[in-house]
Amino acid sequence: KAWRAAIVHCIADPKEVGTENAYEYFADGLLVVDGDTIRAVGDAETLLPTLPHDMLTEHHPDGLITPGFIDTHIHYPQTDMIGSYGEQLLTWLNTYTFPEEGKFADKTHARDVAERFLKELLRNGTTTALVFGTVHKVSVEAFFEACEEQNLRMICGKVMMDRNAPDYLTDTPESSYQESKELIDTWHNKGRLHYAITPRFAPTSSDEQLQLAGQLLGEYDDVYMHTHLSENVDECAWVQDLFPNSKNYLDVYDQNQLLSERSVFAHGIHLCDSEYHRLHETGSAIAFCPTSNLFIGSGLFKLSKAEEYNVNVGMGTDVGGGTSFSILQTLNEAYKVVQLQNENLNPIKSLYLATLGGAKALRLENKIGNLVAGSEADFVILDKKATPLLTSRLALAQSIEESLFVFMTLGDDRAIQATYSAGQCVHLR
Ligand code: GUN
Ligand code: FE
User: What positions does the domain Amidohydrolase-related occupy (predicted)?
Assistant: First the structure.
């Protein structure tokens, strides 16, 4: 089957090859899909004569096809507490987050939220996410079971947390190691699913737990590690108190062998040069979560610093600290965060961060992140006429860069006409 519409996707990092060489755009494009895999992408007029005459072609004259979006940091158990008022990180966790996460001891509740969470991701064009569960093993089982039904490429893990949290939400170093291992053995690389070892953040883990998390990571070739890093000033001071023998926040994780090519650290706002350097050296990635960083008042992520040190970066919504499931809206806020630092975020770079850059951060760039032949058919059809304002504003856009920028500024779930995962339609507006 083929889809005919405007098509844009990144083929390289704009930082490495320059903006102009980082993407392909076909004003009248064709995306050819065979089962779950992309067979070809290019100009419709060039490709159509090469294809069988009876091939099914869906034409979207007002459509813009992009790769599916990638969310490199989000909490599915926080779906129902999005927009919780008035606090910064540490009180926000105690007041709103922990009580909400307590409900996920119940697998029926977890499955219900997991299904609504996935619907929300898909209606926003997100086809892959790196996802926090709760401390409960059943929360991750419920999530993976819901993903498996739709054959989605998702990464999730059980939170490891043995201190500084309510009793009903804590595990022990041994139980967290054992349960994480069982989940890895059952779910990691099952279909399109992957496991992430998930210590919540340094303050809620003892040294013993972090050490066992690192040991577990070392036992596997390609398991992920997912945690929070240097989000909030009070949090950073607390980490320095709790771990007096660490050089800096990142060093707490580093001393426990938690930095790797498949390690993703959410936020990384208040980092020193040696931390950027160490992230680069170990091939670790940062999830840039602008809606959350603004909403919980954490600070401004320094994208240019991450670039200077060649640290992989992906976009994260961080729902429920973040305020939107939409990667388009997340890019809207990212643009403003960069503006406040007297820099610019080019729309091609934004597209890169939301697709191929996220895929690279997750080491999945050979599978997802763009539309080259051989990639998994995870893509989105944006609708240029989704709203009156999008219609009128896009009619004036002079280039694909400008059109993308308008989508990223005005667009949200209404702009997503359809979402495809492994060639299957998983959302239709
Ligand atoms: N740090 C530790 N836990 C959390 C969480 O649930 N959300 C955010 N934004 N930061 C955290
Ligand atoms: Fe988070």
Answer: 65-425
**ipTM for this prediction:** 0.99
Please give the C-alpha separations between residue 327 and each of 46, 141, 253, in angstroms, as whole numbers. Answer: 32, 26, 28
Contact 288, 314 (CB under 8 A): yes
Query: Going by CA atoms, what residue is nearest to atom 3 of ligand 1?
Result: 200
- List the residue whose alpha carbon is closest to atom 9 of ligand 1: 321
Distance of alpha carbon 38 from alpha carbon 224, whole angstroms = 26
- Which atom of ligand 1 has the smallest separation from the CA of 228? 1
How far apart are alpha carbons 150 and 58 in whole angstroms?
Answer: 22
Ligand lying closest to the C-alpha of residue 97: 1
Question: pTM value?
Answer: 0.99
Query: Mean pLDDT throughout 385-400?
Result: 98
pLDDT band at 284 (very low <50, low <70, confident <90, very high): very high
Give all domains of the chain, ordered by start, each with its CATH number: 2-68+369-428 (2.30.40.10), 69-325 (3.20.20.140)
Do residues 320 and 78 make contact, with C-beta atoms less than 8 angstroms apart? yes
Residue 185 token pair: 């053995």
Ligand 1 geometric centre to CA of 100 (Å): 13
For 324-346, the pLDDT digits (tens) are 999 999 999 999 999 999 999 99
108 burial (CB, 10 Å; 0-12 / 13-18 / 19+) is exposed
Type of residue numbered 417:
Q
DSSP bridge pairs for 59: 4
Radius of gyration of the chain (CA): 21
Give the position of tokens 């990180």.
89
